[in-house]
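Structure in, sequence out. Go:
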């Protein structure tokens, strides 16, 4: 109960904020200027709905926060890779962080500036590397000595030159889910910081792959500034050691992982991060690369789903909806919290009213679950929310990041539609999958 009250109080309170692009007006949920019920009636459910104003505003806040130093912002495509959204971000000046050949292709189709592409990932295939070299991407994030050797070899064979960022593990842990912690030694990502000097001594003068960037990435879901400041401070002596040996290090790639407001508004803002990080980089004469994903897109998306049935089992009350874990896997995979609320409620149940001191009645404690044949197919457990009936629409908030992009066809369920809202207009940016297209590749 406390979690969703905190969320409502801090997130939906500020009318005019970008998160208020999803707001209740006269008891009905709107995405910017569009009644979401109209979208559901036209497009069906489940459906992902994105607010263009929200993700552009989040990008702008990061651009503004780091304007005092030379910064390349590379939005992480894996967070949400719809080409229409990528096009809008590219026009707004964003580069892109990619982790596969498919994401490179998406960036190309979106008209991205290839010089502002960074390619991460521990298992890049030769074909993917060659595609990226041919595209002229800005930088490869190197995760292992073997990968660096292979990149050098492929550049020489194909007559290419490129730039690389060596990903080092500062071995700093922080409070997040164990599945999204990546900045410690015991992960498949990156290289132990103690081995970095030896790798530079062995490979830096290879002639085809410039090694002028150090890359660090703690993981995902960060909620405080301190761990990021600490790993900058831990890496700066390494930069100085490399420079003292004659190696040129002109950029620091601080990765992504900055938290989004899933539960409360205590997640630091871009300005909070920049206030403490920028002075350190300016003093060290370093340019900056950032790879934000969920901090740009998470709160820009909701998923609409329709109530199919209600049931009771023992002391449990269940709201069964038409979306499943195949549509949104974060709750069952990461035990992630998402605020959930009906799209149409009485005045005393509008979330904003709660923060004005009005009591909410007609609520019940329920598990919100889907139709998938798995016990882990749920979106919320023991959650207090207004009473709903069969056919009522429910919105799952803050699903823009790692929502649709992690969806699947499990249980032979067609992938749902995606819709982009811009002001008082909306358009389908991905059609709902049909049964025919579900089996098309098997014919």
């Amino acid at each position: 109960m406390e979690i969703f009250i905190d969320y409502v109080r801090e997130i939906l309170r500020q009318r005019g904020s970008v998160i208020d692009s999803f707001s209740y007006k006269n008891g009905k949920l709107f995405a910017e200027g569009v009644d979401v019920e109209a979208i559901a009636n036209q497009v069906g459910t489940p459906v992902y709905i994105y607010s263009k104003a929200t993700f552009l505003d989040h990008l702008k806040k990061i651009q503004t926060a780091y304007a005092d130093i030379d910064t390349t912002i590379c939005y992480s495509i894996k967070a949400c890779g719809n080409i229409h959204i990528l096009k809008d971000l590219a026009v707004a000046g964003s580069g892109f962080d990619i982790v596969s050949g498919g994401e490179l292709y998406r960036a190309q189709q979106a008209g991205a500036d290839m010089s502002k592409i960074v390619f991460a990932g521990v298992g890049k295939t030769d074909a993917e590397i060659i595609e990226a070299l041919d595209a002229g991407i800005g930088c490869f994030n190197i995760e292992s000595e073997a990968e660096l050797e292979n990149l050098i070899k492929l550049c020489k064979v194909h007559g290419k030159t490129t730039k690389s960022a060596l990903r080092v593990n500062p071995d700093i842990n922080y409070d997040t889910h164990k599945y999204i912690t990546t900045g410690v030694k015991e992960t498949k990502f990156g290289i132990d910081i103690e081995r970095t000097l030896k790798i530079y001594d062995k490979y830096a003068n290879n002639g085809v792959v410039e090694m002028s960037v150090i890359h660090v990435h703690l993981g995902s879901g960060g909620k405080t500034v301190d761990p990021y400041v600490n790993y900058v401070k831990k890496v700066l002596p390494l930069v100085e050691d490399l420079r003292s040996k004659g190696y040129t290090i002109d950029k620091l790639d601080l990765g992504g992982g900055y938290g989004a407001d899933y539960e409360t508004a205590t997640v630091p803002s871009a300005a909070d991060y920049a206030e403490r990080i920028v002075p350190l980089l300016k003093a060290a004469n370093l340019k900056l690369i950032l790879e934000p994903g969920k901090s740009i897109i998470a709160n820009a998306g909701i998923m609409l789903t329709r109530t199919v049935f209600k049931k009771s089992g023992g002391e449990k009350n269940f709201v069964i909806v038409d979306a499943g874990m195949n549509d949104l896997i974060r709750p069952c995979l990461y035990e992630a919290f998402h605020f959930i609320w009906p799209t149409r409620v009485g005045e005393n149940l509008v979330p904003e009213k709660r923060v004005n001191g009005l009591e909410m009645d007609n609520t019940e404690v329920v598990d919100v679950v889907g139709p998938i044949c798995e016990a882990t197919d749920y979106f919320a457990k023991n959650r207090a929310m207004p009473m709903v009936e069969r056919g009522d629409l429910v919105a799952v908030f803050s699903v823009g990041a790692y929502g649709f992009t992690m969806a699947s066809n499990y249980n032979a369920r067609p992938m749902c539609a995606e819709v982009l809202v811009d002001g008082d207009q909306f358009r389908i940016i991905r059609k709902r999958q049909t049964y025919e297209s579900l089996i098309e590749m098997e014919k």
